[in-house]
Amino acid sequence: MGPVQKKKTDNVADQGPTSLFLFTPSSPVRRLTNWFVNSPVFEWTIIITIIANCVVMSLDDKLPVHDKTVLSLQMEDLEPIFMIIFTIEMCTKILALGFILHKNSYMRNLWNIMDFIVVVSGFLPLILPAGLEGSINLNTLRTFRVLRPLKLVSGVPSLQVVMSSIGKAIGPLVNIALLLLFAVIIFAIVGLEFYAGALNTTCYSLDDLNTIVTEGEGGAPCFPGQEKKAPMGSYTCNIQKSVCLEKWEGPNSGITSFDNIGLAMLTVFQCVSMEGWTPILYWTNDAIGSAYNWIFFIPLIVVGSFFMLNLVLGVLSGEFAKEKDRVESRAGFLLLKEEQKLEREMNGYMNWICKAEDLVLAEERTSEYDKKRIVEARRKAAEGKRKQKTEEEELAGATSEFWARIRRARICIRRMCKQQWWFWLVIILVFLNTCTVAVEHYNQPQWLTIFLYYAEFLFLGAFVFEMCIRLYALGPFIYFSSAFNRFDCVVITGSIFEVLWVNLQPRAGSFGLSGLRALRLLRVFKVTKYWSPLRNLVIALMNALSSIMSLLFLLFLFIFIFALLGMQLFGGSFNFPDETPTSNFNTIINALLTVFQVLTEEDWNNVMYTAIVSQGGRHNGGIIYSIYFVMLTLLGNYCLLNVFLAIACDSLDQAAELTAAEEAEKERQEEEQERQRLREQQELKAIGADGQLGDELRGDEEEGGEPPLPDMDDEDQVRPILPYSSLFILTSTNPFRVGLHWFVTKPFFDGFIMIVILLSSASLAAEDPVEEHHPRNLLLQYFDYVFTAIFAIECLLKILDLGACAHPGSYLRDIWNVLDSLVVSCALISFYFQGTPMGQKLKSVKLLRVLRPLKMVNRVPALKAVFDCVVTSLKNVFNILIVYMLFLLIFAMVGVQLFNGKFFYCSDASKGNAEECQGEYFVFGEHGETSPTVERRVWDIKAFNYDNCGAAIITLFAVQTSEGWVDVLQNSMSSTFEDEGPFPWFSTEMAIFYIVYFVVFPFFFVNIFVALVIVTFNELGEAELTDDIDKNQKSCIDFVIMAKPMEVYIPEETSGCLYQIWRLVTSPPFENFIMLLIVLNTVLLMMKYHGAPLHYTDILSDCNLVFTTLFTVECVMKLSSFGYKLRQQESWNG
Q1: Which residues form the Ion transport domain (predicted)?
Q2: Are the CB atoms for 827 and 798 separated by under 8 Å?
Q3: Which of 233, 575, 633, 829 is the most core-located residue (most Cβ within 10 A)?
Q4: What is the CATH code for 169-331?
Q5: For 419, phi and psi rounded to 5 degrees?
Q6: Complete DSSP assignment for 654-675
C-alpha cells in the first residue's frame, strides 16, 4: 500500500485553487475531506457497499407481470441506505477534489463519471411523474459499480497484465469492429437485394388458407410457382394439399429475415457467428434455389468468421505478450532494486554489529563466558542463513539420547523419502488408485463394489501415511514450500471429508474429490529426465495459473454484470403460456447460466429470439433488444475469451524457451566433451610415434563415407543426375539415363503431370456414384485407363532416373514418391479386380492422387512455410495431447462419481423410478388440438450419460464442442439419486462442474492447440533468419527491396481541357465529394425494405439512378484525364 499512498498524497497536493469556488486547499473542510477520501478504510467501505448492493440486486427474483416475492419487497427497503452511502461518497469527493474546472477534479476521472451517472440516475425515479417511474428502470446502472474494485489492480501483476493488454488492444479492436461493421453492412445490402421477401412464403393448406402445413416443428419457405419451373434445389408445395403464399411472417417469428436493413444485419451477424447459419442457407435454398445461393454464404463465412473475427486473436495475443514483458521487466527491476537496497542496509547493519563485537572481544576486561556467547551467537547467525541444517548439526543439537534417537529416525525417514524407489512407489499407488476409480461403473457386480469400498480406505490410508511421513521428515516449512505438496494435502484432506460425508450422511452423493488424486500423476513430469518438452509444458501451464485466475476474475465480473442487466431487461418475461424455457433470466442462477451459455455460443440465437418475442416481437419494438446479445457476444466471446488464447500462446512460448535453453545447455556440454576428446587425441598424437595413431584416427573417420549429394538449395538450378547407378544397371554417364534425366527434369514435364492430375481428379469427381453403369461412367473409364497409364509411365521414368531405393536420393526415399507409387499400384490392382467388390474398394484409393500437387509447395516459399507449420504442429501436438487426455480422464472419473446411474428417465414425466414406469399413459396433442393417444411407458437412459468412464469421456468430449451441452447441463442439474428419474433444478450446484470443465478445456486447452500452430509458425519464420540479423532488420530489408516509388501522373501539357479535368479529379475536395456520394449511396441502399409503397420504391430507384450517373461521370473524367492503362494500374479503379 506504500506506493499507492504516495501517489494519493501527490494527487492531494495538486487539488486546484478552490473546490466549488468556496473551499481552498488549506481550509479545514477541504483538508478533512481529503484525509477521509484518501483513507484505505473509506475505499474498502465503498467497495464492500458496492458488493452488498450487487448481492441485494441478485436476490431479486423476477416474476411475471412485475410481481415481487416477499424477499424482493424486503430488499427494496435497503435501497435508500445504499443511495445515501453513494451520495455521501459523491459529495465528499466533490468537496475534496472539486467538480470539473481544474486538473484532477472529480469529473476528470472516468470512474467518477460513472459513479456520478449512477447516483444521479438513482434519483430520477423520485422526480419523474407518477406512473412513469415504473416504465424506466435505472437500477441496472448500479451493476457497473462492480467494476470499481478493478482500481486496486496495481498490486496484482497478473491482473494488471490482463487488464493492460485488453486496454491497449481497445484501439486496434475498435478498428476491427468498424471493419466488421462495414463487412456486415455490405453483405446485408446484398442480402437485402437478393432475399427481401424470399423467406415470407410457405405452404398453406387448401382446406384452410390460414393453416400452415408444417415441416418439422414449423413452416418452411417455398418457391411460389410450378414445380417444373422451380429453380434447382428449391422447395415446392404439394399442389394436391397446399399452396405457396406470401403471407407468412418468416422463420423464428420473422426475426430471421432480409426484409429490411436491420433484420438483414442481424441475420448476417448470426451467420458470422456460425451458430444456426446452415438453416438460413437451407431456407434460402428452398425459396430461390441452390444453384447460385452458395455464392453469398461461403464468402460471408470465409470473410466474416474465418478472417475478420480471427483478427481479434492476433491483436489480443500480441498486446498480451508485449504487456507481460513490460510488466515483468519492470517488476523484476523493482524487485532487484529493493533486494539490493535491503542487502546494503543489512550488510551495513551487520558490519556495525561485527565491529562492535570485535571491540568487545578485544577488550581485556571481557570475560571468557561473554566471548563464548558472542562466538556462539555468530555461529547461530551463520547457520540461520542456511535454509536447512546438516544432519551432523541436527544430531549435535539433541539434548538427550532419547531425542538423538528420534532425530536419527527422522533423518533415516528423510533419506528414504528422497529415494527414487519411494517416489516411484507413490506414483504406482497413485496409478493404481486412478485405475480403481476409473473402473467404477453403473450396475457393477457386488464383489467389485465391495472391493472398491475397501480399496478406497486402503489407498486413502496409504496416502495419509505418506503425507504424514513426508511432513514429519521434511518439517512443515519445507513440506508446504512445494506446490505439489500443498496440492497433495488439499486433495487428501478433501478425500477424508468426502469419505466421512458419504458414509455418515444418508443418501449423500459423492463430490468426486477422489478423482482429483489422479492429478498427482503430474509429479512424474516434474522429475523425469527423458521428456523435457512435456515437463516444460507442464511447468509453463503452472506458471500461467496466475494470469488465468486474473482473467477468470474479470470474466466473472463480466458475466455478473450482464446477468444483472439481463434480469432487469428480461426478468419474468420468458414465462410463456406453453412453457418457460430453461434459458431465462428469472433468477440470478438462471441468468448467470444463460449468459454463460451465450458466451459459449451454444444456441445463443434461440435465446435471442425468445427475448425478442417476449418484448413484443419484430413488429412491436422487440428487435432493439438484440443489441444486448450482440454486445454480449462481441465483448465476451470475441474479446474477453480470446485472452485465453493469448495466455496459451505465452505458455507455449515459455515452454519452447525452456526446451531451447535445455537443448543449448546439452549442446554446450557435448561441445565441451568433443573439445576434451580432441585434446586427448592431440595428446595421444604427440605421444605416439610419428603421428601414426593420429593418422589411424583420421583414416577411421574418412572410411565408409558416401559421395556427397548435389546441393539442392537453389530452387532455380536444374537438379543434376545422381552419382549412383540406377537399378545396378544404368550408371550416371549412361547416354540413355542422361537423356531420360534431361526429359524428366524439364519444367514442361512437371506441368504436363499436374494437368493430368487435375483432369484425373475432375474425371473422378464427374462419376455418377448412384448408377454405376451410367453412360458417363463408361466414357470416363477409358479416360481412367489413359490417366493411369500416364502415371505408371511417370513412375517408371523416375525410377530409371533416380534408382529404386538402394542409395540416397533414390525414388522411394521420398515420401511423395512412395505415395505416388502406392496410388498407381492400387489403380493397377483395381483394374485387375474390376467388377469385383475388391475393385470398388481399391478404386477410391486413386483419390489420393489429388495430393500430388503439394509437391509444388517447395516452389512457393509462403506455401512451404504454411505446410511446414502444419506438419511441425502435428509432431508437437503429442505432448499437449498427453496432458489433455489426463485431464479429460480426471473429469470423466469425477463425472462418474457425481452422476453414476442418475441419467435415467421415464417417457411419462410423472413417474420417478423404474417400478412406477410401467403400463401405458395418455399423450395429448399440442394445445389440445388432437385426441389423446395411448403410449407405453419406457424407462430409458439419456444418450449422453456418465454410467462408466468411457461413456463419460464421450459425454465430456461432446460438451467440449459446445454443441448440445446445455441439454447435458440440464440433465445433470435435474439428476436426483441413482436409479431415480429427474426433477428440474434439483442439483443446481452441479453447474459448477461444467463451468470448471469449460474453463479448463474449451476456454484454455482447445486454445492451446490453436496457440501451438501460431507459435510453430512464428518459430519457423524466425528460423529462416540468419545469425547476423534479427527479425526486425530482415523486415526492414524486405521492405526496402519490395518498396516501389509512388507513381504520380502529370500531364505533359499544362493547359487545355484535359489538364483542367486532371486538376479537378486529383484535388482533395473532389475526392471528399466522391466519398460523400459513396456514403449517401450506401445509406440509400440501406433504406430499402420489403413491402414498401410503390412511390417510395420509385423515389429510391430515381435516386439510385442519379448516383449511378454521377459515378459514371467520375469514371469518364478519370479515364479522359489518366487514360485507360494508367487508371487500371490502381487496384481500386480496376
Answers
A1: 40-326, 420-657, 747-1022, 1068-1125
A2: no
A3: 633
A4: 1.10.287
A5: -80, 150
A6: HHHHHHHHHHHHHHHHHHHHHH
The crossing angle, in degrees rounded to 10, of helices 545-570 and 643-687 is 170
- Residue 1070, burial from CB neighbour count under 10 angstroms (0-12, 13-18, 19+): middle
**Side chain identity at residue 307, one-letter code:** F
Are 487 and 517 in contact by the 8 Å Cβ rule? The answer is: no
Q: Which three cell numbers stand for residue 954?
A: 464421450
d(CA 905, CA 939): 6
pLDDT attached to residue 297: 92
Using the 8-state DSSP alphabet, how is residue 242 labeled?
E
Cα(220)–Cα(249) distance, integer angstroms? 11
- E-strand spans in 773-828? none
Amino acid at 1126: L
CA dihedral 296, 297, 302, 308 (to 10 degrees): 80
CATH no. of 28-128+138-155: 1.20.120.350
Q: Which residues carry a binding-site annotation for Ca(2+)?
A: 275, 602, 963
Half-sphere exposure in the Cβ direction for 438 (13 Å, CA)? 17
Measuring CA to CA, which residue among 877, 871, 793, 792 is closest to residue 826? 792
- Among left, alpha and beta (phi > 0; psi -120 to 50; other), residue 1118 is alpha
3 state SS of 914: coil
CA–CA separation, 367 and 375 (whole Å): 13
Closest C-alpha to 573, from 620, 616, 603:
616
Contact between 585 and 594 (Cβ < 8 Å) = yes
Domains 28-128+138-155 and 735-859 share a fold: yes
**Mean predicted lDDT score pLDDT of the chain:** 77
The CATH number given to 873-903+942-1024 is: 1.10.287
Residue 970 makes CB contacts below 8 A (sequence gap 6+) with 582
Q: How confident is the model at residue 166 (pLDDT cuts 50, 70, 90)?
A: confident
Average of pLDDT values for 989-1006? 87
Cut 0.85: pTM above it? no
> Does the domain formed by 735-859 have CATH 1.20.120.350?
yes
Amino acid at 80: P
Overall average pLDDT of the 211-230 stretch: 81
- In this predicted structure, what is the pLDDT of residue 98? 86
Helix (H) or strand (E) holding 920: strand 920-923
Instruction: Judge whether 517 and 481 are in contact, CB under 8 Å.
Output: no
CATH number for 539-675 (one of 1.10.287.70, 1.10.10.10, 3.30.1490.20, 1.25.40.280): it is: 1.10.287.70
With cell 402445413, the residue in question is 213
pLDDT for 375 beyond 70: no
Distances (CA, A) of 820 to 614, 762, 783, 796, 973: 61, 18, 19, 11, 55
> Residue 710 gets which letter from DSSP?
P
- Per-residue cell: 979: 436409479
What would the grid cell of residue 1036 be?
526492414
Q: Name the grid cell of 705.
A: 563415407
Q: Say how many Å lie between the first and final Cα of the chain, rounded.
A: 62
Q: Can you give the residue ranges of every domain in the chain?
A: 28-128+138-155, 169-331, 402-523, 539-675, 735-859, 873-903+942-1024, 1057-1128
**The domain over range 402-523 is classified in CATH as 1.10.260.40:** no
Q: How many helices (H) and strands (E) does the chain have?
A: 42, 6
The fourth-level CATH superfamily of domain 1057-1128 is Voltage-gated potassium channels. Chain C (1.20.120.350)
Assign 3-state DSSP to the chain and report helix, strand, coil percentages, each to 5. Answer: 70, 5, 30
CA distances from 143 to 48, 51, 138, 146, 562 (A): 13, 9, 10, 6, 9
Q: How far apart are CA 463 and CA 491, in angstroms?
A: 10
Provide the pLDDT for residue 7. 41
536 pLDDT higher than 60: yes
Asked if residue 377 lies in contact with residue 356, where contact means CB atoms within 8 angstroms, the answer is no
Q: Which residues are annotated as a binding site?
A: 275, 602, 963
